[in-house]
Design goal:
308 residues, mainly beta, six-stranded mixed beta sheet, five-stranded mixed beta sheet, 3 helices, 20 strands
């Protein structure tokens, strides 16, 4: 009889163990990818919660009985389906887009103005959008696209002189005197210009060099609010320069009664009430104290009529 050969350690004996191990790995991997999870679908003003094994957003939408129109779009929070992911559905709405005077009507399911304009081929860095790029698309929304460009230019321009005002007690209140006339300077500037649809919209100074410095104008402002009168030193509120005329108590209607009912007499003066309110107490150098109590047809503006 011939002898028998038994293979107890060759490749054939180990094959079932290898296949079994591979199946276990595949089951574990498949179970990880297709694990049961909760996801949410935000659509048409409501949020649908469901459990699913799928990682395909369109399968999940079908599971939620959500049908997409040809121009509807959706976005997934985080970019992929994971536990508690949110699929937001954006229904297509009619909008208009205006660019360089031409308006186009279209329908889009893009979530935002920026995404819509980018889908039309615009570079968002080179346009200004109204409403802004993050605005949500709304039905019948009007969108304006303005082309924006910038350039840097250099030029000389004047440096405007400052005006310095100083109080001076030697001058009466309200008086002004120029102590130093001053002059504008000259500077060289580098400016960034912004153009919108080819028209200059704004400028921003990047840097400036002084060629000739400006010299300030210095103005002395009177702060002396007192005047010497026959009764001593009096304080006043305002100094006005007026053109003065004179009249007698019997002038006009001949009755000698003023517009306020006060009898006309020395110390009563006629004024323009829009310049000096009636009832104002006055001191007039060379005339003395007076009361603004009368008006006159010819007394307009900085004119005053003194009753003598």
């Amino acid at each position: 009889m011939g002898s028998k050969y038994f293979n107890t350690g060759g490749p054939v004996a180990w094959m079932p163990l290898v296949v079994t191990a591979l199946m276990v790995v595949l089951v574990l991997a498949t179970g990880f990818v297709w694990a049961d999870k909760t996801v949410y679908v935000a659509v048409d003003g409501q949020t649908i919660k469901l459990r699913t094994l799928s990682n395909d957003p369109e399968q999940i939408l079908a599971q939620a009985d959500v049908r997409l129109g040809p121009q509807d779009e959706y976005r997934i929070s985080g970019g992929k389906i994971t536990r508690d992911a949110v699929i937001s559905v954006y229904r297509a709405v009619p909008v208009t887009v205006t660019y360089q005077g031409q308006t186009t009507a279209l329908t889009s399911g893009k979530p935002t103005v920026g995404e819509l304009v980018a889908s039309l081929g615009f570079d968002l860095d080179g346009v200004k959008l109204t409403p802004g790029p993050d605005s949500r698309l709304r039905p019948n929304m009007g969108i304006t696209v303005v082309g924006v460009s910038r350039r840097v230019v250099e030029r000389d321009e004047p440096i405007v002189r400052d005006v310095i005002r100083r109080a001076d007690s030697e001058l009466e209140l309200g008086e002004q005197q120029v102590l130093q006339e001053g002059s504008d300077g000259l500077g060289h500037v580098r400016v960034e210009q912004t153009y919108e649809d080819g028209r200059l919209a704004s400028e921003r100074v990047l840097d400036q060099q002084v060629i000739t410095p400006a010299v300030p104008t210095i103005v002395l402002i009177g702060s002396n609010d007192t005047v010497q009168t026959s009764r001593g030193t009096e304080r006043f509120r305002q100094v006005m320069t007026m053109k003065a005329t004179a009249y007698l108590p019997g002038d006009g209607d001949g009755w000698g009664i003023t517009a306020t009912g006060v009898p006309a007499a020395y110390g009563v003066v006629a004024v323009d009430p829009s310049v000096i309110p009636l009832g104002t107490r006055l001191y007039i150098p060379g005339y003395g104290y007076a009361l603004a109590a009368d008006t006159g047809g010819a007394i307009r503006g900085n004119r005053i009529d003194l009753c003598m």
